[in-house]
Structures are given as structure tokens and as C-alpha cells.
């Protein structure tokens, strides 16, 4: 992978960045994504934010190699501290982290999201955390995508500011309101895997002391299994 040829996962993230957006890529690593966006004429200006010195220096080197220093600024900062109102950021991308960490970045930098029109988020795990955050903070999920790369399944969530209060069912929060509309083969594979794993955990819990915590966790997993199997059975009937 490089700035000219992204991975399948990051290529799909790039597809959701609006034309002529001013984009901030948070946790940019080598800055491949912002470089790709500028090189392909999607955006004119971008910021690459990185909190770790090594990846920050790699991003700087990449931007210099691509001769994009006038269009991409690499900043060493934690999360959304990499941006300021003067930047005029309209789109934020955060890819390759766990859902809860992405939520933490968004929550700690909420004041920095004023003026941002679109969030393109690619959690490696626990996408539900982002959906919960979206509801609490009045962001709507306008697009979702599920894909497979190197035997791992990833989700992409595209959020825009909601025009009215957002409300989703427990099933939609868990599995994705947009993904539930299509139920692709990869979607079904993911949830068959998840359900099987949860069943193993529940079975192992049966053999342990039934503390309040164990009982509550078991009830939570059983509910999730029911929600998932309801969808899968309906799809395969």
C-alpha cells in the first residue's frame, strides 16, 4: 500500500469523502489517505493528525515525497486537537481504530466538530459504540458499508449532522440501520461469526459461579444472539 494505491479498506473510506471537502485525517499514520485524496483531485487541502512521534514523522516524509507540503499539513496532536476553526474542516476521517477509541476522540473534541459536515469512520471492532455516540450527539448515519480484507471484516460509517432527533432500534444499533437494508453475504458472515462466538461465551458462563455480573453479562449476550438470529433466520427463510 502507498499513497497512489490504497488498501481496499482505505479506498472505500476515500470514496465517502465529498468532492472539494477540506479533510482532516485523524490517526493518519503514513498520511496515505490524505495524499491519495489530493493526488486524485478529490480535495485541495488536507490535515493529517498523528499523536505518536514515529508515525507523525512517517507522515511528514510521505507528504514531502509526494511534493504535497503546500496542500497537506501534518500535525503532531492528540485526536481532534490537530484541527482548529481557522482550518475550515468540512470532513473528518478516522480509520483503523476500535469503535470506543473513535468515540473517545469525537467526544473529547466535540467543540472542534462545529462546521464539520461529514464524519467518515472505519472502526476495526465495536461499530455499535459509534452508533450509540451518534444518537447521543444528534448525528445521523447516512451511509454504511461492510467489506472484507485479508479475512477480516470491517465496517465504514458515514455520519452527517441530524436535522431532527435520531432514534434506532436495538437491532439497528447493533447491526447497522443501513447495513440491515441490504444484508450482503459479508454482513451475514460477520453476524454468524459473532453469534457463534457469543454462544461459546454463554456456554462457558454456565459453568462458572453465577455472580450478578456474570448473570447480567449472560443476559446481554443472549439478547444480542436473539437480535442477530432473528435477522439471519428471516433472511434465510
UniProtKB/TrEMBL annotation:
It comes from the Bacteria. InterPro entries: SAM-dependent_MTases_sf, TrmK. The keyword Transferase applies. GO terms for molecular function: tRNA (adenine(22)-N1)-methyltransferase activity. Keywords: Methyltransferase, Transferase. This is SAM-dependent methyltransferase. Pfam families: TrmK. PANTHER family: TRNA (ADENINE(22)-N(1))-METHYLTRANSFERASE. The keyword Methyltransferase applies. One of its GO terms (biological process) is methylation. SUPFAM superfamilies: S-adenosyl-L-methionine-dependent methyltransferases.
Amino acid at each position: 500500500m502507498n499513497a497512489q494505491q490504497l488498501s481496499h479498506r482505505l479506498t472505500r473510506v476515500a470514496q465517502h469523502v465529498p468532492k472539494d471537502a477540506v479533510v482532516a485525517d485523524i490517526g493518519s499514520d503514513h498520511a496515505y489517505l490524505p495524499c491519495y485524496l489530493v493526488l486524485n483531485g478529490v480535495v485541495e487541502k488536507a490535515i493529517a493528525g498523528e499523536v505518536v512521534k514515529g508515525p507523525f514523522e512517517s507522515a511528514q516524509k510521505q507528504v514531502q515525497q509526494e511534493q504535497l507540503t503546500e496542500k497537506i499539513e501534518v500535525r503532531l496532536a492528540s485526536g481532534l486537537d490537530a484541527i482548529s476553526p481557522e482550518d475550515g474542516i468540512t470532513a473528518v476521517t478516522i480509520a483503523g481504530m476500535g469503535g470506543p477509541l473513535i468515540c473517545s476522540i469525537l467526544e473529547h473534541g466535540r467543540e472542534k466538530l462545529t462546521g464539520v459536515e461529514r464524519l467518515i469512520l472505519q472502526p476495526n471492532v465495536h461499530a455499535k459504540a459509534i452508533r450509540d455516540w451518534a444518537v447521543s450527539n444528534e448525528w445521523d448515519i447516512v451511509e454504511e458499508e461492510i467489506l472484507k480484507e485479508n479475512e477480516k471484516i470491517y465496517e465504514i460509517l458515514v455520519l452527517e449532522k441530524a436535522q431532527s432527533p435520531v432514534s434506532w432500534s436495538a437491532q439497528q444499533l447493533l447491526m447497522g440501520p443501513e447495513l440491515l437494508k441490504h444484508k450482503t453475504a459479508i454482513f451475514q458472515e460477520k453476524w454468524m461469526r459473532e453469534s457463534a462466538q457469543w454462544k461459546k461465551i454463554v456456554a462457558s458462563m454456565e459453568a462458572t459461579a453465577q455472580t450478578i455480573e456474570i448473570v447480567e453479562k449472560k443476559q446481554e449476550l443472549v439478547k444480542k444472539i436473539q437480535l442477530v438470529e432473528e435477522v439471519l433466520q428471516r433472511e434465510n427463510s
